Amino acid sequence: GDSVTQTEGLVTLTEGLPVMLNCTYQTIYSNPFLFWYVQHLNESPRLLLKSFTDNKRTEHQGFHATLHKSSSSFHLQKSSAQLSDSALYYCALDQGGRALIFGTGTTVSVSP
Amino acid sequence: DMKVTQMPRYLIKRMGENVLLECGQDMSHETMYWYRQDPGLGLQLIYISYDVDSNSEGDIPKGYRVSRKKREHFSLILDSAKTNQTSVYFCASSFTGTFNERLFFGHGTKLSVL
Hints:
The complex is a heterodimer. Chain A is mainly beta. Chain A has one domain: Immunoglobulin-like (Sandwich), CATH 2.60.40.10. In chain B, strands 2, 4, 5, 6, 9, 10 and 11 form a 7-stranded mixed beta sheet that branches. The radius of gyration of chain B is 13 Å and the shape is globular.
């Protein structure tokens, strides 16, 4: 079945350094939608960005991701981490219009 | 104001007791969802509802049932709660449930089953 893999459970880094969170997926659908959701402490998950188009960079709030169908990847990146980026990040895959399937999440901890 | 509201925010129950988690949305969304969130497991889909009395099992439905009698309300019921159902439960909604749609999440209910 469809699945989403996030390999890092916890990423710790210093403010100002770049961030990259890995996301790979498996799906039978040739045109998947991929999403990144972010959840700050004691808050609910909210959409950060999404993509449908192969090899096109999508940006929002300083983060960017590019869907690469050839490698089934949708990695999230930011050039310079801020303290406020500390949160739990989920990669998610649309299950052909049924419901989103989420990865296990990556916790990002940014320190001064 | 686009909002998904969950009640209660925190709940402590004893094993074997019945549990009712309530969710409401004010966006007239057709589709609503119940997810549970556990460390290391992420968000797992329990049930999805496409509209009133049109519910479908998600990936982990065992031990849960749902009720949707009005479009704006979606309830999750645990009959005879078990300790392994201790978790944070999130309700979400989307306009039609078709792909590409953003999910709106409630703030979650933290359930502890002792």
